Amino acid sequence: xxxxxxxxxxxxxxxxxxxxxxxxxxxxxxxxxxxxxxxxxxxxxxxxxxxxxxxxxxxxxxxxxxxxxxxxxxxxxxxxxxxxxxxxxxxxxxxxxxxxxxxxxxxxxxxxxxxxxxxxxxxxxxxxxxxxxxxxxxxxxxxxxxxxxxxxxxxxxxxxxxxxxxxxxxxxxxxxxxxxxxxxxxxxxxxxxxxxxxxxxxxxxxxxxxxxxxxxxxxxx
Length: 221
What we know:
- The structure is a single chain.
- By secondary structure, the protein is mainly beta.
- 12% of the residues lie in helices and 61% in strands.
- It contains two helices and eight strands, in the order αβββββββαβ.
């Protein structure tokens, strides 16, 4: 709970700073970006970015990702596979001019992950035969929905090739923590203890931290 409170505190501070920088009623986008993203490239996630600029060098963005059949083989050590994973977040993005048509980008913001995992267990299955309730021993298919909250910090290099097209490479880290599950088999502590940091070099990261590496191809106007 302390970790969650800290994440929410940082998120609220970020949103408050943005709100003080420019009242919502006066918001008139200075630019927009729409990009196709290969995010968290070590594990092959694809998503989309939308950014609206409230200053010439600052913007507020939204990232959304939806992936099906993400883990093919008991990836967590608890589940057999994943039916879907949705990841999203809002972020503040800062652009620092480096060279002509090239900018260094700094980005941070809260993230959310909603996942549905399936697994099997052996047990007694209830059924009815001629109006009589009976039981048989067999395989039971179960599904859990888990929710994670977190925060990310990313540094990137954005190269603009003409008046609209851009390519951006980025590297960063995020922290994700389980905050909710409907599982009747596993607790939040069970999920945390079986979690891991995604991607290569994960052994060098503290538990629940993830290395983010990817690129964005998009349009800017």
